[in-house]
């Protein structure tokens, strides 16, 4: 992480006083003990108490905080609910941690235009709960949806079990209100798809808090499908289940969700939630289809046929809504369930081409043996987004280091087979130093130029995403030949 700036630390008292003048009352936390709950996000292996925490309640306060910090050269780390699993909200010792938890109002719901306008602190699940009385819902549904905030979803471009058919956060956000590092309040997108102009909204979604602080989000809400049915398909091993996934998609069937769990994850989830998962299988697929009843019946039959051809040993179709929800309850509880069978686990996030799934699962098993650490696989099989859970004990010297190396090799494997480093958790600090595995130096430099366009002083969430952060002036250097600038007719800024 960046070395703390001693000049900033020396003026901490003045920074605290300035923040209290902008956000009065209990909006500023500076007591060392009170700062401890903020020292990490969901990637708890890394901890750093912030210099102070500021909890604004209005957009004007956010703008004022950023404007003051920009003028004084003080770094700012935005934070939502703190459920990030990549260290994206890890504080800095010399930075203001800007918590957006008080922005938790649903501002407007328009059923005719099928949108909801919400503040970033609203939880993912709360959007669905607010509109379900009228038969609508918000499609992206991360496993942490009961706690994760929509602002964090925008920062990380979060997914979920139903994103195979309905898309990630970027496919369901129509507009945002954003405050830049210099305190300017801007709006991107609109209340309708495909707003005119540059697609800056596409740049912001997934930018991990490096470009601005989101203070309002307009999301797409969808009518609840007429019918939804889920089927549990058991397989003798993860390879045959992975082959079934590829064949279902190859047949032109796009389920609403298609999730996979291997034997350790199945046993852990069943012991935790007791929903009737088969325990005599090596891998389990949960496949959901939705739409008109006749279409669902047809698709379930087709999926059962494909599963049988790929060696499925068991099949259980949900008979009512309660059973369908129960099937998903086990999958969504898989992470805490695995926490009952291992003192610690390291949740990975990488994405691969579906057709390489059997190969990747084989090679992950070999890596498990190499590092002497167990792994439970729970992932969004339909779109190739893997979430291996590496099991370790942090109390045993060296096991955390081995778990990290194991995880790094999994991510290198994802890139090797044509995939990417992350599907929905983001880069943060976890994958930052692996970025050169996927991107050439010129690629990374171009990405940093986008950062410089929004935040020239590099004050917003520094130390994340980029393995080597160049000063913007370095990226802007030009070769002068015989006193002549290249393209001298272009205006310089």
TrEMBL record:
Start and end residues of each FAD-binding PCMH-type domain: 46-224
SUPFAM superfamilies documented for this protein: FAD-binding/transporter-associated domain-like, FAD-linked oxidases, C-terminal domain
GO molecular function: FAD binding; oxidoreductase activity
Keyword Flavoprotein: yes
Required co-factors: FAD
Residue ranges of coiled coil: none
Top-level taxonomic group: Bacteria
PROSITE patterns associated with the record: FAD_PCMH
Stored Gene3D superfamilies: 3.30.465.10, 3.30.70.2190, 3.30.70.2740, Vanillyl-alcohol Oxidase, Chain A, domain 4
Leader sequence residues: none
UniProt keyword Transmembrane present: no
Pfam families: FAD-oxidase_C, FAD_binding_4
The entry's keywords: FAD, Flavoprotein, Oxidoreductase
Protein name (Swiss-Prot/TrEMBL): Lactate dehydrogenase
Organism of derivation: Novosphingobium colocasiae
């Amino acid at each position: 992480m960046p070395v703390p700036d001693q000049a900033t630390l020396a003026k901490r008292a003045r920074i605290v006083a300035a923040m209290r003048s902008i956000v009065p009352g209990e909006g500023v936390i500076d007591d060392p003990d009170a700062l401890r709950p903020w020292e990490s996000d969901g990637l708890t292996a890394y901890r750093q108490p912030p210099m102070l925490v500021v909890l604004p309640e209005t957009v004007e306060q956010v703008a004022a905080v950023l404007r003051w910090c920009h003028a004084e050269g003080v770094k700012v780390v935005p934070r939502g609910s703190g459920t990030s699993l990549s260290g994206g909200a890890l504080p800095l010792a010399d930075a203001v941690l800007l918590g957006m938890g008080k922005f938790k109002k649903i501002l407007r719901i328009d059923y005719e235009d099928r949108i909801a306008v919400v503040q970033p602190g609203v939880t993912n699940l709360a959007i669905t709960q607010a509109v379900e009385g009228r038969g609508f819902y918000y499609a992206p549904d991360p496993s942490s949806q009961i706690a994760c905030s929509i602002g964090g979803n925008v920062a990380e471009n979060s997914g979920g079990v139903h994103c195979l058919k309905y898309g990630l956060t970027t496919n369901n956000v129509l507009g945002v209100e954003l405050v830049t590092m210099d305190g300017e309040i801007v709006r991107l997108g609109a209340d309708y798809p495909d707003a005119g102009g540059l697609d800056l909204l596409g740049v912001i979604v997934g930018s991990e808090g490096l470009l601005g602080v989101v203070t309002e989000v307009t999301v797409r809400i969808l009518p609840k499908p007429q019918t939804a049915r889920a089927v549990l398909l058991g397989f003798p091993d993860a390879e045959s289940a992975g082959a079934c996934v590829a064949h279902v998609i190859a047949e032109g069937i796009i389920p609403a969700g298609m999730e996979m769990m291997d034997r350790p994850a199945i046993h852990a989830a069943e012991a935790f939630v007791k929903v009737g998962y088969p325990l005599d299988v090596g891998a389990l697929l949960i496949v959901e289809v939705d739409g008109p009843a006749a279409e669902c019946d047809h698709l379930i039959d087709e999926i059962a046929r494909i599963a049988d051809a790929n060696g499925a040993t068991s099949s259980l179709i949900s008979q009512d809504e309660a059973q369908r929800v129960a099937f998903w309850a086990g999958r969504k509880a898989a992470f805490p369930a695995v926490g009952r069978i291992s003192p610690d686990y390291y949740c990975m996030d990488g994405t691969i081409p579906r057709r390489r799934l059997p190969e990747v699962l084989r090679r992950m098993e070999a890596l498990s043996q190499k590092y002497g650490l167990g792994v439970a696989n729970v992932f969004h099989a339909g779109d190739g987004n893997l979430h291996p859970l590496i099991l370790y004990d942090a109390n045993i010297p060296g096991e955390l280091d081995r778990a990290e190396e194991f995880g790094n090799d999994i991510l290198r494997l994802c890139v090797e087979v044509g995939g990417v480093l992350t599907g929905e958790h983001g880069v943060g600090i976890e994958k930052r130093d692996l970025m050169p595995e996927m991107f050439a130096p010129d690629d990374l430099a171009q990405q940093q130029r986008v950062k410089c366009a929004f935040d020239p002083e590099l004050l917003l969430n520094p130390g994340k995403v980029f393995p080597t952060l160049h000063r913007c002036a370095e990226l802007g250097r030009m070769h002068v030949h015989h006193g002549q600038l290249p393209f001298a007719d272009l205006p310089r800024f």
